[in-house]
Amino acid sequence: MPSPIPVAVLGATGSVGQRFISLLDNHPWFKVVALAASDRSVGQKYSQAARWILDVPMPDYAKDMVIVPASTDSVQAKIVFSALHNEIAKDLEPQFARAGMAVCSNASSFRRDDDVPLLLPEINADHVHLVTQQRKNKNWSGCILTNPNCTSTGLTIALKALDDAFGVKKVFAVSLQALSGAGYPGVASLDIMDNVIPNIKGEEEKVEWEPRKMLGKYNNGKIDLADIQFSAHTNRVAVTDGHLVCASVELTSQADPQTAEAILRDFSAASSARELPSSPRPVIQVREEADRPQPRLDRLTGNGMTTVVGRIRRDPILDLKFVVLSHNTIRGAAGGSIYNAELLVSEDLL
Amino acid sequence: MPSPIPVAVLGATGSVGQRFISLLDNHPWFKVVALAASDRSVGQKYSQAARWILDVPMPDYAKDMVIVPASTDSVQAKIVFSALHNEIAKDLEPQFARAGMAVCSNASSFRRDDDVPLLLPEINADHVHLVTQQRKNKNWSGCILTNPNCTSTGLTIALKALDDAFGVKKVFAVSLQALSGAGYPGVASLDIMDNVIPNIKGEEEKVEWEPRKMLGKYNNGKIDLADIQFSAHTNRVAVTDGHLVCASVELTSQADPQTAEAILRDFSAASSARELPSSPRPVIQVREEADRPQPRLDRLTGNGMTTVVGRIRRDPILDLKFVVLSHNTIRGAAGGSIYNAELLVSEDLL
Amino acid sequence: MPSPIPVAVLGATGSVGQRFISLLDNHPWFKVVALAASDRSVGQKYSQAARWILDVPMPDYAKDMVIVPASTDSVQAKIVFSALHNEIAKDLEPQFARAGMAVCSNASSFRRDDDVPLLLPEINADHVHLVTQQRKNKNWSGCILTNPNCTSTGLTIALKALDDAFGVKKVFAVSLQALSGAGYPGVASLDIMDNVIPNIKGEEEKVEWEPRKMLGKYNNGKIDLADIQFSAHTNRVAVTDGHLVCASVELTSQADPQTAEAILRDFSAASSARELPSSPRPVIQVREEADRPQPRLDRLTGNGMTTVVGRIRRDPILDLKFVVLSHNTIRGAAGGSIYNAELLVSEDLL
Amino acid sequence: MPSPIPVAVLGATGSVGQRFISLLDNHPWFKVVALAASDRSVGQKYSQAARWILDVPMPDYAKDMVIVPASTDSVQAKIVFSALHNEIAKDLEPQFARAGMAVCSNASSFRRDDDVPLLLPEINADHVHLVTQQRKNKNWSGCILTNPNCTSTGLTIALKALDDAFGVKKVFAVSLQALSGAGYPGVASLDIMDNVIPNIKGEEEKVEWEPRKMLGKYNNGKIDLADIQFSAHTNRVAVTDGHLVCASVELTSQADPQTAEAILRDFSAASSARELPSSPRPVIQVREEADRPQPRLDRLTGNGMTTVVGRIRRDPILDLKFVVLSHNTIRGAAGGSIYNAELLVSEDLL
Hints:
4 copies of one chain form a homotetramer. Chain A is α/β, with parallel strands linked by helices. Chain A is built from 13 helices and 14 strands.
């Protein structure tokens, strides 16, 4: 890479925004040139505006940057990473695309649009080419790329490996999700201390639909949704980072746990997504202990980009049961968006 | 009741033992005459021997009782409540039955025996009559009664209501279980802080089998196992008390969520189990909020004896999804055993 | 008591408001006739307006009460319990006093006023007579009574016993405070999970001043502040209820730990405050274990009204060290206000 | 450094042992040649014997090492890092010193011995020369070096800066200590969930004595204890790593908070301890926010070797109050021992 690509973070003070700023520190291709946030913060130095909540320190580069408004006038970049709330993203992200910028978004606003890639590069890198169709349809030179909700992320990566090998027909998924998934301030401490909250608004619908798009076939400028049935229960538990999913799956062809384990362990990304700066190494780590993966012990596997799977065993009703863990603000949010941006660059689609 | 029935607690110092002692305080029928524990504690006053961990104070009656050995020589009672570990229970409980005492046990050692009732009086009170067969088979005048593991408890009660109304064919169950279920000291704090443990040794097998016995038909001195398939994932979470289960079920006849909700709400115990001192009032409470039941807020419903159900909704693969909560050391352990004993007494089987 | 005294709760939906509603259920003297809250809630049934966060269920009497505005037009009561925020309390509470009602307040707005009692009936019941002076000064027929901040509460009760016996000169106090002290939603879960927050805004100033008023002498219509020096550090920890304080004290006359322990254990309230419905029984409980009091195990001692003290030992610099626990939303907030109201009634000052 | 120095870890499977193994990964001077543990583990591969509890992965070098007995026959190294329990350390550590090895110990067994350095290189590097006296006294060629208990560590470092500048006379210290300080399994989850344990056995005595030795003057082969009075309360809180101490101090000469803050910020180690591989950079970080340091956010400052101080303000009784945070298993245990070993090497005392 000759000179670094200028990038910006929208919604820079929130919890996902902070993770973007942390992960972009010393990025080999990207240089952060603008941090945008709401009016309340505009004009302040980042170190004053942000209530930093990560357990890794705020990078030096960000401390003295002055927050700008989240508008195309104030932000001059090639790529913008969006940690905006959905309602705001709906209005703002198209403006940035129209202004010629590539928007890599965490918001759910455009995930279901036919010409917007919903991307996990290790499993559906070819979907990135939807942006060509998108540019034609929308008549803009930028683009919008999305990553899925943080609970679908790890689950879908594991399912892809199994689907390629055996065909997946039905999936029961019950999540135990971390607090950082709700942003900051997010969940009140009195709601979660010594407690579980057995619902996360809107999440079950996402987990029951988004994997079908990601596991779908890219076909002539559009995606054919995968023909897989999903049933999801979503729960909030007292964990800071790391979403765990208990899954039971029905397969098209028989698979014993040992074979499935080998398939998961050996899964690799398409070559286009394999050697990018944020590529997970490995894509999937299989744990053999009887009680892993666990959020606190395993969430930072592969710098938080690896999907960790364990307890692969027969299901008495369907075929297989297993447990999946994924770091929700790294692989499932900011790290995923950065990985998407890297794919866009390496595919010459910027 | 003319004069109180003398009862004893075996394994009195542990976490379930403490719950027995707490729940038996001022019991209208029973009077605690002996507390038995391991050799290490024998001869000490209970208040010295027990490291009390409940958030309700130790009852006065227990403080000065002197711990005796868990042997039929040392314990003179009509009913013994057993909070013994399985390996010990296997040896000791038959000795007490042989000595003419009714053993109401939390241990899993005899749950699968054909002539041992596995009892939740609000749903299978008639199974108590297995003890007549048991006495014949074993040639003893006492008996052994068991209650199921704490995760099966609430789930099976909810399933019974649905099974009576619609027929249950398949059940997916994922548990989020409390720390007190592992006893004391049980789970190390470093293992559960900011974490989930996605396995509880031996628990999934129990959840996949025990409900089938409890939902089975009592028939001429034996139980025909219910023809229902179960698939279970069990998890430990950072909650002190209260096991939550996410369940998806397939039914024989169609049921919409509203009808199922009414069926659950209106479920009542057989008349023999309805008006006992520990009878749950109501048997099932249905919560209508989008995010209930929750362990901290709902576990003490009906003094911890009520099963709380919420989020009854359609399942995209099977028929219905819902969430069940049950207090694991009250309804799911000590309170359940006491309820069993009350049924035995009121049925004149003591 | 012939007929119940009509009372109201201001700020009824918040965490302290909920505790008022819970503690006033079946109160022998008081009957709740109005629940007032902010405009957002007015007109709704209480069960709809309040997000109930206590682990005891919402009392039936409250469920269908319709929320009214917190104004003297809407509230017809003899006593109003105020769980209002300080800024609002500053304006509203005098209006209620002027309208002839006795305001028993948790807010800090008037605690420092010369003619407003800052009351812990078990230690300074005579201070209640300040209301006579207050009525004269303010020319109103109602009155304002306050209870101290929840951290000062237990500490000051323990200090009173020691001060009466030995004289207290200096006090170091370091608190470990519960989450419910910050209200709801209060502390964000991401701020307290696996963490301590070593500051609570404004709290140290209160702990360094309020005990001096409560330990002061009532003298001819005013209080002479006690001549005691305080130094406080305040911390928030991951506990739902129960404030713990580590204290080191310098005394005027020598006291060995055993004597101090006896003095604390035997402390009793003035006769006027000893037999009220909410009187703590005992006022102080001394725990002898090496590691008590503990919030989870001891906060409900005496229904949450008792102050629990432990680890009384020599201090290498001053005279004595000890640990104090008090339930912050019962004795330290709603329960304290109710106790204050009971004293006002029994002293014929209503 | 020409060739790496062979080192061993005693007590390698425990929580401090794990931290040693993690911190010694890629150490520029040291190479781990032996891992020793109790008989139960001997002969197993480390990856099988250890239940790894750190949230950073087990280093590859350790996985296949076979556990050896903790005896001088089995361990051939120049330096042994001891994470042994005190009773075992008392017997074993002298054997290793006698066999010519330098024992860098976390145990408390020899901390009070006149000729054993109690070392925090950033504040008392010269104390390392006690080993010359020790070798003479004990007639052995190895040596024993100790680091203080984890609560004294950060406190003493902050006190040293203040003592050099203003003289310290009295110290009140109240700790809020992390769970990892108790080892594994250590504190039971039911003991700390929603709770605080207001005592840590033996800890207050250590905090009241150890700083006096470390702040003492090295004088002709012995240490004159510093003439400072300490009073300590120690508490266990629900935090995984990071001990927080609230301190109030009396000084010999007046100091305003701003000056003290500058003194703390500018404190640097003696030149002999300043540029070692594990030297904290900076020694002390001062946080200016009103609510820092916090364990989760600040414990990894300077890779866990930096002492973090905040809230420096006037004390109403003594002179200054402040809060200190130190990572208890890095700076306060394994990292501290490694730093000690580096000093020993660089001072040519190995």
